[in-house]
Amino acid sequence: MNIISLSESDCFVLLGKEKERTATTLLAVFIASLLSVSYGFVLHFPHPLTLGNEKWYTAGHISLVIGASIGSVFAGIFIDKLGRRSTILMTSIIYLLGYVLLIFGCPEIQNNENFPIFFTVFGCIYCGIGVGMTSLVVPVYIAEVSSARLRGVMGAITNHAIVFGIFLYSLTAEISNWNVKYYYSVLLGLVITLLSLLMIFMPETPRWLLANDQRDKALKNQLWLLGVKSDAEDTCNYIETNLAHEQIASVNDFCSPVLFRPLIIGSLLFLIHQLTLIGYIIYLSHFLKRFKHLYITLTCFLLQLIFSLAGCFIVKRFFRRYILLFGSTTLLLCSIGFAISSDLNKKLSELRVAYLIIYAIIFITTWGSLPWIIVSEIFPPRARGLLGGIVRSFIWLFYIPTEMIFLKLVSINGSLWFTACISLLSILFIYYIVPETKKLTLEEIDQHYLIYRRF
């Protein structure tokens, strides 16, 4: 049955392949992904708050994570009530408010390194709310404005924008002088957020408009996204037919496989993604701290761009589950191999650098991008906001504990074995539970959970 669905979807994709245009969809995705750049920028941002004082880093970091958990819940409500585009614009304004508060608390303005903790905490909370909202609304918006043919490539842009934001902050911190880099970093984040307000000129997703009885506007937006030669009318009819069988999600529905399975799958996917992301940031921070040279940062930045392009090709070329299985298997073998080598020769620093390079490649091309794509696809339309908000809020609450555990393991050289265990469990999880979503429309994925009652 699954093979039949895939072949039918292939026929549909091939039929519209030459009729659909990609430029306008890419423009909408690019504008929305500016929030993901802010996401990566803010995620690595509290580090300047140390400035020789550990309490500022702790306050900023905890405030950021708490705000992200709250923002995920807000986004789950707003994307269903107000729409995807309106929520993106609201997120941009929240980022702006957070950066303004951080600027007022900037030590260069206050002329005092012990700058007011009020501005720091509330600035990080508002930026954290923006991070939490971004983690939900941007992948959903990209998934809904993209066709089945484009959704994999467009969805991969989310992770690459996040990594770009992390490197952009690292680059700013390296170029700027230590005494003024905090101020410059805040201003750069403010500029990125201002650019995201260009979302005003982008369309709302046709699926949300159809769900809210705005068919004429939905058809107009679908034509704008995919062109006048695309099958916009048939696509809208197909979406409407699927929505007609939908109903508002209730608490009792969480006991049904239609909502329960996507919730479990999405939570575990993002948990593994978060563990790999934390490892990526920690390893990268140690690497840049050890080799603190501008050309090292620039080299990492250029390599990230190359791997990002390769990741888009990989997502388009291969099935999602195969990519994740390859990534987990590679991390498993490399982690075990490097752990054994490190135990034999603890002073061999070249091994750590080699492992970082492999880890970064695997993260950027597999576990960095695929969870964003799959989770934005598997949730049914009636509960996309509700389930997405629950999953991301739950995961954000575990960010600081998992980071502390990883830092502790790094200090005792146990992070390699920890990564190996996570990779082994993820292989079993992907092979037996995670569904394949490549080349399927969002409606076909929704029907998958209605037809198949087991994992």
From TrEMBL:
Keywords: Membrane, Transmembrane, Transmembrane helix. It is a multi-pass membrane protein. The chain crosses the membrane at residues 26-45, 57-79, 86-105, 117-143, 150-170, 182-202, 263-283, 295-315, 322-341, 353-374, 386-410, 416-434. Its main location: membrane. Residues 1-438 form the Major facilitator superfamily (MFS) profile domain. Coiled coil: none annotated. This is Solute carrier family 2, facilitated glucose transporter member 8-like isoform X1. It comes from Hydra vulgaris (Hydra).
